[in-house]
Each structure stands twice: as structure tokens, then as C-alpha cells.
Amino acid sequence: MSERWPGEPTKLDELDEVEDDEVEDDEVEEEEEPVAEEEEEDADEEPLLRAPGDQQHAEGELDIPDDINVIEGEPDGTRRGVAIVASRYNGEITNKLLASALEELAEAGVPREAITVMPVPGAFELPLAAMALAKTRRFACVVALGCVVRGETPHFEFIASEAASGLQLAALETGVPVAFGVLTVDVVEQAEARVSKGAEAVRTALEMADAFAQLRASASR
Q1: How many CB atoms within 10 Å of residue 221?
Q2: Pick from 147, 143, 93, 148: which is nearest to 118 by CA?
Q3: Helix H or strand E segment including 129
Q4: What is the CA 78 to chain-centroid distance, rounded?
Q5: Are β-strands 115-120 and 141-149 bridged in parallel, bridged antiparallel, or unpaired?
Q6: Catalytic residue among 4, 137, 138, 155
Q7: Residue 201, exposed/middle/buried by CB under 10 A (0-12, 13-18, 19+)?
Q8: What structural domains and CATH numbers belong to the chain?
Q9: Alpha-carbon Rg of the chain, whole angstroms?
Q10: Would you say 132 and 173 are in contact if contact means Cβ atoms under 8 Å apart?
Q11: How many Cα atoms within 13 Å fall on the side-chain side of residue 46?
């Protein structure tokens, strides 16, 4: 015979009831737990982010001790031949880059007859043209200009990446400085605001060319 009275809960039933009570108690405690005022205020506050146009590269001078030998180039174009390879694609932007570059070359003292411009179809062809120009040894440096605008396909990533790596390879294989003056932007308006990149690329190329000239002169002594 059974040892319990009819209607008396078994141990299993009692265990189920205990677990149900604990779950209900936990839910009540979670619902009644107050949220700290500071946490609510922190949740409402969002981190301050810079607008895309506010993000700038930090420029500065290196603090090198006076008793250390330094080879540092200057953006001086006197007696230097300079080659510019420019993409015709997105020509409205590239023309402004080219104008900026030519103006900077004039300010640096590079005569017009010492400048050679080679147009190419697009940014993908820039590295090949830069390599060919550098291999002639007629130019102290090469400036690559172009503009790649992001679209709805991965085309942007492939072109921008290949242009950057190809131009670096041209410089590494020839030893001739190749400056990267290619804009890689999301929209055309961003490119319009950055056409001074042409002048910046010229200054970079001339500075590296001058540093390399100093290095060769010091090695021949």
C-alpha cells in the first residue's frame, strides 16, 4: 500500500513547486532591482565623434639630437626632372589635382621644360606607367595622380589597393621616389575638398628625391 494520503504531494511534486517558487522570486527581484541614476545618464550619453572632414593627419618635426647625422630632403626642384602620371578617369578631379601639382612645382623652382606628364586611362594603369618612367632614369621622382570613387560593387577596393601597392612596388624596384597622389573617396564631394593632394604629392616626391641625392653624395665621398 502507498504510505501517503490521497492528495498528498509526492517529493517530485514538492520539488517542482520549490523550483517554480524560486523562478518567480528571481523574476520579481529582477523586476524590482532599481537602475542606478548614473548608469541611466551614461546610457543616454553618446561618445563624441569627429566629422569626416575634421579628421586630419598630425604633422610635426622629429626631435633628433644635434650630435646625430641626419639626411633630410627639402622640396627643392632646382635642376630636377619630374614626371607626372595622371589618370584620365574622373578627369574633372584629376585635372584639379594636376593643376595643384603644377603650381607647386613652379613654386619649388622646377622649370616647365623639366616636367613630363603622361596621361593613362585609369588608376589601375598608374603603376605600370610610373614604373616605365622611373626606369628611364631621366626623372628624379614620379608623381602619380588619380581619383577612385567608391561605388556599389567591390571594384573600388580592387582598384584602390592595386594602385597603392603597384606604385609602391615601382618605387621599391627602381629606387626612384614615387609619390601617391591618388584620392580614394566615398563621394565626389570629398574629392573636391582634397584636390590639394596634388601639391602635397609633389612636395613628398621632391623631398624624397633630395634626400636620395644627399645619400648618394655622402656615399661617394
Answers
A1: 4
A2: 143
A3: helix 126-135
A4: 31
A5: unpaired
A6: 155
A7: buried
A8: 82-219 (3.40.50.960)
A9: 33
A10: no
A11: 3
The pLDDT value recorded for residue 77 is 65
Q: Could you list the pLDDT tens digit for every one of the 221 residues in the chain?
A: 444 444 445 544 544 554 555 545 554 455 555 544 544 444 444 444 444 444 455 566 788 877 677 777 777 666 789 999 999 999 999 999 999 999 999 999 999 999 999 999 999 999 999 999 999 999 999 999 999 999 777 778 889 999 999 999 999 999 999 999 999 999 999 999 999 999 999 999 999 999 999 998 888 77
d(CA 73, CA 135): 22
Query: What are the C-alpha distances in Å from 63 to residues 60, 73, 208?
Result: 9, 16, 19
Let me know if 57 is a catalytic residue: no
Asked if 104 and 197 touch (Cβ cutoff 8 Å), the reply is: no
Burial of 200 (0-12, 13-18, 19+ CB in 10 A): middle
Give the CA diameter of the chain.
Answer: 117
